[in-house]
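Before relying on records like the one below, remember that each one covers exactly one chain. Contacts with other chains, cofactors or solvent are not represented anywhere in the record.
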Amino acid sequence: MWEGRAQGVRRDVTALASAGLDVAELHAAAIALVDRVVPCELTCWASMDPDSGAISSMTSGANRIPAQYEPVLATCEYTPGEPHTFASLAQRGDTVARLEDKRSTRLNEVWRPLGLDHELRALFRADDTCWGAAGIVRTSDFSEREMEFMASVAPALGAATRVAARTAARRTGAPAIVVVAQDGTIRASTASAARWREELRGRRRPIRRDG
């Protein structure tokens, strides 16, 4: 029964690439499909800028992460040493991973205070380029076959996210996103943001000094 359900979801996920959805609609639909095979308490899916790896949008499942934890999660994603960040998974070439490192800030300061102990992450690639990712969290551990299922649908989700992101870019332009640390250091930025910074630098007027 589980295998039959998984095959049906894989087929439906693949069909999403031609559904004409934007990224948020696509991920919301995919979250509902994946939940039939890999149920969870909380999940959040991201689209990612393919050049910089910066997160460009987030879509939650039926249950949203409480707002007070969102800044902690955002900080963790760009903190060196935090295990299994989307960027580190992409650099290693991993597709799926379970969070098992007890030193994880997001495990100790977000998931466990919410009564959750297990996280599964998946990256959505198309032609070796990462276009999105998902974090899935729940009270019970994830099985090997659940991990295998996520790995099997990840390429279809990568292709579908690429189509949706490129369609949005043609309509509205590529997003200009800059991720800044507390000290003002830029941790990540999209190519569009870099172009804006260069243009603004070019428009600066020299300071006049009278006398």
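DSSP finds seven helices and seven strands in the chain.
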